[in-house]
Design brief:
Order of helices and strands: EHEHHEHEHHEH
Strand content: 5-15%
Largest sheet: 5 strands, parallel
Shape: globular
Oligomer: single chain
Number of helices: 7
Length: 164
């Protein structure tokens, strides 16, 4: 099983993904680590990525997902996956590749983003991420205002996955 922890920047993808990986003993992949240099430069400049910009990045992430599935292995992937077409490119089927959407209001996420530094994500991109966001109709949707431990407990219970 692959869990794709998704949502706009500041929703808690990395925090939740790392906690899930630690609890389940599964590897964690930070989607941001796989952006090509051109994407990083655009985001640093505050320029929203286009679908064409995202395609090679999503293809790389799909390769990781496919490799893990072929090995019969589990994993956690933190990835914005803002649009349904992106989730389709990742192979989300809500059976073996499941979305975990961290839903938070623009104001909540804006406050979080303002209180942190990201190595390249320009804070001004938040509005464009919310504009692009297509909430998933299936998978898990969790309230991003809950504590990280509460969120992980809910995911564990709903998916019936125990810790190590």
């Amino acid at each position: 099983m692959i869990l794709v922890v998704m949502g706009p920047m500041g929703s808690g993808k990395t925090t939740i993904g790392k906690l899930l990986a630690s609890r389940f003993g599964w590897p964690f992949y930070e989607g941001d680590d796989f952006h090509p240099p051109e994407n990083v430069a655009k985001m640093q400049a505050g320029i929203p990525l286009t679908d064409d910009d995202r395609r090679p990045w999503l293809e790389t992430l799909r390769g990781i997902i496919d490799e893990r599935l072929q090995e019969g292995a589990n994993a956690i992937l933190a990835c914005s996956a803002l649009k349904e077409t992106y989730r389709q490119m990742l192979g989300v089927d809500q059976k073996t590749v499941i979305t975990v959407y961290l839903r938070g209001s623009f104001e909540l996420v804006r406050r979080r983003v303002e209180g942190r530094e990201h190595r390249y994500m320009n804070k001004n991109l938040l509005r464009s991420q919310f504009n692009a966001l297509e909430e998933p109709e299936a998978g898990l949707t969790l309230d991003a205002t809950a504590s990280p431990d509460e969120i992980v407990d809910i995911i564990s219970a709903q998916l019936k996955i125990n810790g190590r």
